[in-house]
Amino acid sequence: MHFQWYPGHMTKARRMMQENIKLIDIVVELVDARIPYSSKNPDIDQLAQNKYRLIILNKVDMADPELTDLWEAYYKEKGFYVARVNSQKGSGIREVKKLIEQAVKEKKDRDKKRGILNRPVRAMVAGIPNVGKSTFINSFAGKAAAKTGNKPGVTKGKQWIKINKNVELLDTPGILWPKFEDQAVGLRLALIGSIREEILNTSEMAVELIDFLKKEYPGAIFSRYNVEEEGSAHMILEEIARVRGCLMRGSQVDIEKAGLLLLDEFRSLRLGRISLERPDIDSR
Ligand code: G4P
After folding, report:
1. Which of 31, 88, 125 to mutate to test the pocket of ligand 1 (most atoms within 8 A of CB)?
2. Domain 201-282 CATH (choose: 3.40.718.10, 1.10.1580.10, 3.40.50.2300, 3.40.390.10)
3. In CATH terms, is domain 8-171 a member of 3.40.50.300?
4. pLDDT digit string, tens, across residues 77-98
């Protein structure tokens, strides 16, 4: 599902988050492992004050494993629980459950000291659109989630999915809004295909991607297209168009078509597992 964001959307999403977050103890925040910075919403830090925080690096199957290692360490150092997950395949879900158990244990110990009796810990999944929230919930809650789904009318009140005797999950994820004011963020979200907003046209996006690949993944373009990585990104795109037969009438190269081809191939991992951000100054 794609979202067109406008201020009304954002206000509504924020209000929902503010309401729901009051009810919960743990925020399970999904980010895309290829762009853990750009797919993260900074407002959540304020909204989720005093909550346990678990960051899920989702879609790890698409990301560069070495960079995922760095991001995992980065967020751990900041005090988050962190898990790397492929929600489609369900890998990493066991680790998520283990981490939540840790948080539950901490919480229960704290509650006990204050004389609060046993009560289940409540969790909520949150993230920007397309980061994989529904897929994650299905994987995480399995049959329990399937049972509660598709019941129009019943969803008026809050629905809690019982994960086990200690943990309940809110069945509707919190939708967060991306940081659209930052151009670089918009570009990366568009490159991975997570937003439809046309911040640039296709060939311009492809040119940006080529510049990035030349620098961060030298050899990736050459090994896929047999095109030398010298000269400007625009020239390289023209060459890809030629090699792949993206031509207009009169045998002029069609760089829009070549751009689309490159973006498609990047998104479907034909260029390998590539992450667009590393946890250093560049990505902030
Ligand atoms: P959302 O609720 O946060 O909006 O995301 P949703 O679960 O709908 O997932 C968005 C897309 O990402 C889905 O693709 C889903 O299958 C895919 N996805 C989710 N988790 C993972 C993962 O860990 N690895 C990979 N490779 N993909 C994942 P879609 O519906 O098939 O296609 P499309 O319409 O987005 O192209």
Report:
1. 88
2. 1.10.1580.10
3. yes
4. 999 999 999 999 999 999 999 9
